[in-house]
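pasting for ref. prot 1 ->
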Amino acid sequence: MVALTSRYAALAFRLAAIGLILTGLIRLTGVFSGETSWVMLVFYTTQSNLLCLGWMVFLAAVTLRDLRRHGPRGVCQPWPRLAAMVMMAITVTMAIYLVVLAPATFRQGGEGYVPFTLTDDLIHIITPCLLIADWFLFSPKGRLRLFDPVLWAIPPYIYLLFVFIWAVAGLTFGSGRRYPYPFLDVQAHGAGGVILQVAVLTVTLVAFGYIYVVADKLLARAARRGAA
C-alpha cells in the first residue's frame, strides 16, 4: 500500500480542496454576485467540477466518520477505483482546456476570451490537480484494472450524448451557441469532422488513463519490494 494513512492529513486536505473547488464554481457561475449564469451548468467543465465537489464532500464526511470510529490511522480512501474514475473525469477537463481550448483562445459569450484567469485556473487546473493529488496521496495502490481507462471514458460520452440531445432539441449553450465547445460544432466541422476529433481525443485520453494505471502498478510494486 503506497498511501498516507493519516486521517487528520486526509481530512485537512479534503476540506481545503472543498473550499478551493467551491470558490471556482462560485466565481464561474456568479451565484452570489446577483448575476448568476445558470447556463454554465450545461458545460462539462462545470459538471465535472460539481462531481469533484460532491466527491470531496463525501470523502471528507467518510474520513471524519472513520476518524471518530477508528482513530487517526488507517485507510483514507476505501474506493480507489471510483476515486480514479472521478480523477479521470476532471483530468479530461484539464487536458482539453490546456491542449485544445486555451491554445486556440476560443471565444465564449460572443466576446474575446482570455484564458488562464483566476477562475479558469481554479476550475480547469487547480481542481484537477487536487483530485490527482488526493488519489496519489490517499488511495491504496495496486487496485486499478487494465480495463479501467476504457470505463473512465463513459462519463465524457454521457456528456456528449447530452450535448447532441440538447442541440437537437433546439436549445443553446448561451449566446445562441448550439454547441458548448468549438470541436463539437457539427455545422462548422461536419459530422465526420466532429467524429474524427472525438475519436482522436478518446484515444488520447484513454492512453493518458493508462499512465495512471501504470503509475498505480509501479507504486504498488515498489511498496511490496519495500515491505519484503
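and prot 2 ->
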Amino acid sequence: MHPICTATILSATLALALSVPVFAQPAPPPAAPRPQGQNPNGMRVFLWTGLKSHSAGQHDYPQFLADWSKLLTERGAVVDGALHFPSPAALQNTDVVIIYKGDAGYLTDEQKSALEAYVKRGGGLVSLHDSLCGPDPAYFARFLGGAKKHGEVNYTLDAPVPYTVADSAHPIMKDMSALTLFDESFFNLTLARDPGIHVLATAEIAPTRSAGDHKGEQVPQIWTYEHTLSGGQPARAFVWMQGHVYANFSNYQIQRTLLRAIAWAGHKPADDLINYVPPPRPQRQGPQATGAAR
C-alpha cells in the first residue's frame, strides 16, 4: 500500500476513535447505612434459619430471624442472616453462627468444608432445638458436642420440660433457675467424647407416647462444648434443645441465657450483650430541634 494512503487510513481511524464517547464505569452502589446507634465494633452474628414448619406457634424460624435480628442489633451486635446456609464470604465476617433450622445436619460437601474451615478458625456456634438433627449425628457432634439422628423416635413432642440446673456457677446460667417449660425434649443423643460436653441443665423425659421406655431418664438439654478441630483454633459451641414452642424464646430467663450463650460462644464476656449501652444519639441542630416552623 502506498505510504500516503496508509497515513490517511491511520489518521481517519484515530479521529474516529477519538470521536466515540467514553462512558465512565458506574460507581458501585453505596453500602447500606448501619441502623442508628449500631456498634460498628460489635460481635458479628449470622442467623442461619429456615422456612416455617410445624403448627402455628411452633418452629417459627423466619420469625426468629426477624425478632432476633432486631434484638441482637439493639444489643450492639452486627447481624446478618438468611433462610439458607451462610456463604463462605459471610462466614469470614462472622464470630457466631446461630442455627435455628430444622435438621441442619443435612449438609452438602461444600457446606461441610465451609463449616469446618469456620470452626477451625475458632468460629462459635449456637444450636437451638432440632437444628442438631441430621443423617450423621456423629459428624455433627464434632461441632456441637452432641446431635441426634433424623428418622429416629428421639423426642417427647409437646410436654413439660423441668430443668435441673447442673452448673449454676457457669456465667451463662446466671439467670437460670429450676424452671419448667412446656416444650419438647430430646433423648437418644450421640455425644462427643474427648472432649465431652459440659452439661448446664438436664431434664427428666416426660412420659409421652413417643418417649416410651425413656420416660424418667435425666438427659442433658443445655450444654456447652469447647474443642479444637485438628490444626485449628479453640472453638466454642452452645446447645439449647428447646424452642419447639416459639413463645419460649421470650421467657425472661431463657432470653437472657441465650444472650449470654451467644456472647460466650463468640469468646466475649458472657454479659457483653446484656450490658450493652448504645451510644447517645446525636443532638439535632437548627429549627427541627426547637420545633420551629420550617
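The domain at 44-265 is CATH 3.40.50.880 (Rossmann fold).
The CA atoms of residues 76 and 175 lie 20 Å apart.
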